[in-house]
Amino acid sequence: MSHDRFDVDEFTRCLDRAHAHAGAYLRALPQRHVGAQLGREELMAALRAPLPAHGEDAAAVLDLLAAQAPQGTSACASPRYFGFVIGGSYPVALAADWMVSAWDQNAGIHVISPLAAAAEEIAAQWLLELFDLPRESGVGFVTGCQMANFTCLAAARHGVLRQAGWDVETEGLYGAPRVHVVASAESHITIDVAMRYLGFGTRALHRVESDAQGRMLPGRLREVLETLEGPVIVCAQAGNVNTGAFDPLREIGEITRTHGAWLHVDGAFGLWARASESLRAAADGIELADSWATDAHKWLNVPYDCGVAIVRSAQDHRTAMTSVAAYLIQTGGLERDAVDWVPEFSRRARGVPVYATLRTLGRDGVAALVDRCCDRARRMAAALGAEPGVRILNDVVLNQVLVRFGDDDDITRAVVSGVQAEGTCWLSGTTWHGLGAMRISVSNWATSEDDAARSVDAILRVYRAVRAAK
């Protein structure tokens, strides 16, 4: 291969080979062992080599990587992958993502990629419409909900300090009025990490007690707020990562408004309930918030990585994020510069797969996706809970199921590891209120009734074997 000129034929050869490997991987996905079967040592042995002096054949390099994929990857896109909260990829989303790579656009500013800017602007408006959030909100496409929470809380930091007469972007935090950040005892770890990134520190976080399902107690929130003076940011949750439960958002929204606090909602997957008529009530009151964070690579099932930061005050959002430099050619008109809404300068055009997927599915398709996943979760919970010695620990209000076996931590952990090793499906373990549990998250568009039933059968087979061994 020539390394010093644009060779269309070489692009075609490489892409054709990659396409063949990807097709083989996807064809095997529905039936393969769902967990990864190779560890570090095996993969390092297969891939490690001295840095080549003169380079190797491109096709051979692609073949080497592809050969490790069937056993060296977890089948996260499998319809029987229930670990963490991970979606698959719709065919159109994957195809659009491939085109994004082929275009190789730095989507930071409009002048570099008008197409990426336009697609992301439209996708942003469609998301606001789908979630029925204020249409004037600022929207940024980031890597995931960690950066979405960071972006929203940076806007919140700017907004509450601006109201206190302090410009944090210019003056920093030294000497600024103290900002109180309040969150549920069950808030996701990404809130804590954002606190560190933003200079607040985690020790400054005021924790509010939660109930047995992980929902913030509004009465306790009111009591905490009454003890605080000065700028306040409250972090609520739509979709507890273990139970799927929603904080009582309307009551929390009314309390925070009464106290003049900024309300941020971490809705990594729960915000998508707003797209479903049958689930929408769970997120009632979420529109009272000032900012919202979610993931598209969870329930919209676009490829990694894609998170979304939404801020009611577009001005606070933009001021907290934007960067200006003499060499940048930034728009002064209606055109969208992504750098105004996200922490990154150089960034992938990750809003393009969002655009393609929303346009392909439409409002009804997104609602059907969310409803279907939740129905599968309820069915799995009912089937597992009917087995003697198996207990469902949570109210299955969304797509999350917590399962405990034999009312015993060791048995439960043995079942989790046994299921992972057996390979029909893959799911993770957790500790919930001091109890070991299996955590099932149904987030994949392709999970069928048969996939759910096969997975339940596999889980119960492993449980019965563990119980018999005990």
TrEMBL record:
Gene3D superfamilies: Aspartate Aminotransferase, domain 1, Type I PLP-dependent aspartate aminotransferase-like (Major domain). GO terms for molecular function: carboxy-lyase activity; pyridoxal phosphate binding; transaminase activity. Pfam families: Pyridoxal_deC (PF00282). The lineage of its organism: Bacteria, Pseudomonadati, Pseudomonadota, Gammaproteobacteria, Lysobacterales. This is Aspartate aminotransferase family protein. One of its GO terms (biological process) is carboxylic acid metabolic process. Belongs to the group II decarboxylase family. Signal peptide: none annotated. Keywords: Aminotransferase, Decarboxylase, Lyase, Pyridoxal phosphate, Transferase. The keyword DNA repair does not apply.
